[in-house]
Every structure is written in C-alpha cells, then in structure tokens.
Amino acid sequence: MLEIRPIKAFSDNYIWAFQSENGVCAVDPGDAMPLLDWLAENRLSLATILLTHHHPDHIGGLASLRERFSSLQVYGPASIAGVTHPVSEGGKISLGELTLDVIATPGHTLDHLAYLGADFAFTGDTLFAAGCGRLFEGTPEMMYQSLSRLAGLPDTTRLYPAHEYTLANLYFAQACEPDNLAIKDRLVWAQQCMASKQPTLPVLLSTEKASNPFLRASLPSLAAAASSHTGCMVRPGLETFTILRQWKNEFVR
Length: 253
Ligand SMILES: [Zn+2]
Prior knowledge:
- This protein is about 35% helix and about 25% strand.
- It is of the alpha/beta class.
- Helix 1 (about 30-40) links the parallel strand 3 and strand 4.
- The longest helix is centred in the C-terminal third of the chain and has 15 residues, at about 180-195.
- The mean pLDDT is about 95.
- The protein binds zinc ion.
- The site of zinc ion (ZN) has 4 residues, from loops.
C-alpha cells in the first residue's frame, strides 16, 4: 500500500505527500514552508506536484517550490499559472510504476480535478470527510454529479481530502440524521482524534457512504430531513442535495 503522509498547513489544510519512483509527489501545497521542512527532515527532494484547483490555500506554495526545484513537474488545471503539465478529464499521470487517473469534479470551482490511484483518491475540496465543498463557482447539479462519480469508486477506496473539517461536518450530519448510529460512532471517534491532535483522514469511501449526508441525498431519510428543514416537500436526489448544501452554509451547532 502506498504510504501517503499528511503535512499540516495553515489551520486546517493537509498537503498530502508520497514517494514514487520519480521522487516525492505533493498534493495542493498551499504553503511551501511546512513541505520544505518535511522534505529537509527526511532528506528528500520534490519531483511532482498535483493541484486540484486554483484557490490560494492550495497553490500558494507553488512559485517558491518551482524556484527551489527547477525540474519540478506540476500537474493541474490549465487555468493555473505555473502548471507545467495541464491535465483534464480522462488524463493519466505516470509517476514511475504508479498511474493516476484525472477526473473533472466541478462544483466547488469550475476547474476542480480529482486524482485517482488504484485504491485511493485525492479529492481536494470536492469530497470532504462527512461533507463536501462549498459551491463557489459551480451549480448544485455539477457538485451532485461530481460527488456521484466519486461515490461510484470501490468502497475500499481511501479518500484524501484537503481539509480537516470532519468534526464540524459530523455535527451537521447528525443534525440531518439524528438516529444514524454510524454518524454517532464516528462523531465520538473524531472528537477523540481532535483531542489527541490526530488527523481524521484518510477515510474509506464505505464510511462516507454510511455517514456523509451529501452522499446520501438520494435516501428518503435525507429527503425527509431536507423537507422538515424547509417546510416544503423536497424530493430525494438533486433537490435534497441542494437543500442540504444551503442548510450546511447556515448551520451553527
Ligand atoms: Zn477551495
């Protein structure tokens, strides 16, 4: 199994890093410093960067890392300055023996990409543990479609989102489904992780399917929650997803 390390950046970002035959690959280095510190501690050199989207907390370290590592290969949406290898839907990235598939996952931004390995996925700000990204540029329909594609991966897929939002997301999930035992158990576990300053990530897709309301919008229980929140009849699927996403924006525990 590929060892993928979290490197903390800012208050709640993770820069995911792993070694391939080509050298170290880092995902979404919003800040160069923590990554440079980690590389120095481990006497490693950076070979590759993957970018999921253009927000500053994901690309902020790019310029200084490119200066520091002159042959750095940067994969990401063509819209980002500093990308040396633009990729898009259907693209493949070869890092030695490791091949990653690129899929477009618009919604949070229009240019958002996810990177898929054999049994793992870097989901950026599209799919979070127990949540999903805000809709800054895309429509609810785009995000619903993007999440549906990720939900179609094998249940054993390990997901690597870009933020530690799990606990706050689970409080919302519990408000949607107060009787869901998977959410209850996961909430206790996430509280313990936070108390001991441990990441709650990565997470298995099967866990998400059991407790992430945004992956459960087609279920009658979530449609009922969305209906009682709005006071109108909300249909399962996209309508429910749309209401849940709006509700989450306003949600205060
Ligand atoms: Zn973002």
